[in-house]
């Protein structure tokens, strides 16, 4: 099932979408493969990839992914409709299930390129980009934005942006429920200091019942995610899902109707060992895979030793899949209740 169907069904059947947010330097293809082994249904996102990089850079490295990652969305950065169209056309053969335009990243690098969160200031430009991308994309084209930037009044800025991009054909909107301050706050501070305003996202959905509206920002647990889904169509976890990937183990049951059952951690171990072996055989290093797995057993018996093994042994020259086996062996699975990783 593609995200196109997800978005339609989310509106028609009230079945929600659960997604793992795009995160620069984190949600690369190895991270996504790992997350997919824990949840079969969560919608996964790439890191933001700048359109210029796709046009002029190492396309295979930037765009290739394992077929097991589906459904997976490509998040693009850019503000030039022609370049974004070219990037979408280049990415098309790779088979992404969705194309998402970043209108929320507040980093200095993004600002210097006149895209990301600063695009909140130019909603007509965003609409032009969406309209152009829609003409060449067979996958749904979506927007991930903030509620405003700097001195903007969110009650005006957010509806103005949405009116324009929806008129341009955007298939869904994901909203990070914070303003971004383009000057004076670092990207990290922009994820923590501006206050969360979930209510404005709720009101946005109430005003647009026929539009898919998903929420992001500060969501730490699946219980919190369920509460948000009383008001919106989708929920997106970022760092909480990365830093404690075990929360994903209950996603399929709680949000996608899968049968409740104990998670098979040994099967996860074996699949990640096989994946790491393939990656190493292709010239990669174990650390490129293992670094995303460090937070898996946060708070569980043996988690500290698990982290130590992955953090120290995986970086050594010649490290192989046996390091993953040793790390998993440090965890006392008999003390892992089914809901211990999904709270």
From TrEMBL:
Sample GO molecular function, one term: flavin adenine dinucleotide binding
Catalytic EC class: oxidoreductase
Site note Interacts with tRNA, residues: 102, 188, 191, 304, 307
One Pfam family from the record: Dus
Keyword flag Membrane: no
NCBIfam families per UniProt: PRK11815.1 (NF008774), yjbN (TIGR00742)
Protein name, entry field: tRNA-dihydrouridine(20/20a) synthase
Highest classification ranks of the organism: Bacteria, Pseudomonadati, Pseudomonadota, Alphaproteobacteria, Hyphomicrobiales
